[in-house]
């Protein structure tokens, strides 16, 4: 499977580059990440739980970084094993460029899956990979530029209403003018 895309991140390239090398940020941004440890020099170990179609698995894997050019580019290579679910391995070349609103992050990914995952078919795997990438970059954006959430709308949730609901309600009422 091959995939490429670009995302606009509202932070300067140095901030984005540093975030991509920080285990705590990666844990916060990788969907399903339970643990991310290590260093950019020695590589990272990660534990990620995901459900792909009918297959749910916990993957344990190694990630290494190479071709690091500070604030500009890096190559990520990794392999994870999910027991009976199979394996995933691949790599990505990530390029950062300054833009009017922060950083234009471009990536090219090449990945392979095996085991039960491979039996799901490329359409499901490709769709899942795109969803994971989109979620990762949305999480990265939220982590690097949390001012939208921090501002809030001053509303407090009513009894029995979940705090997440109040954020959605607040956003909806701001857009529509209705409560």
Write the layout of secondary structure elements.
Blueprint: E1 2-9, H1 13-20, H2 23-29, E2 33-39, E3 43-52, E4 55-69, E5 73-81, E6 87-99, E7 102-114, H3 116-119, H4 122-144, H5 147-151, H6 163-176
Antiparallel strand pairs: 1-7, 2-3, 3-4, 4-5, 5-6, 6-7
Helix pairs in contact: 2-4
Describe this entry's structure for a reader.
With 179 residues, this protein is an alpha+beta fold. It has six helices and seven strands. It has helices spanning 13-20, 23-29, 116-119, 122-144, 147-151, 163-176, and strands at residues 2-9, 33-39, 43-52, 55-69, 73-81, 87-99, 102-114. It has a seven-stranded antiparallel beta sheet with strand order 1-7-6-5-4-3-2. Helix 2 packs across helix 4. Residues 148-176 have low confidence and may be disordered.
């Amino acid at each position: 499977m091959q995939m490429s895309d670009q995302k606009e991140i509202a932070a300067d390239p140095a901030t984005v580059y540093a975030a991509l090398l920080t285990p705590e940020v990666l844990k916060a941004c990788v969907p399903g990440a339970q643990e991310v440890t290590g260093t950019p020099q020695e590589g990272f170990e990660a534990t990620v739980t995901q459900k792909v179609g009918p297959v749910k698995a916990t993957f344990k894997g190694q990630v290494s970084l190479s071709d690091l050019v500070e604030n500009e580019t890096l190559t990520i290579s990794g392999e994870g094993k999910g027991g009976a679910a199979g394996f995933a391995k691949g790599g990505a070349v990530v390029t950062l460029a300054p833009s009017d609103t922060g950083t234009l992050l471009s990536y090219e990914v090449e990945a392979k899956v095996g085991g039960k995952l491979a039996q799901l078919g490329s359409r499901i795997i490709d769709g899942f990979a795109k969803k994971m990438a989109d979620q990762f970059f949305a999480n990265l954006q939220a982590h690097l530029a949390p001012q939208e959430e921090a501002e809030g709308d001053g509303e407090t949730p009513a009894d029995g209403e979940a705090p997440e609901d109040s954020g959605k309600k607040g956003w909806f009422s701001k857009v529509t003018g209705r409560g």
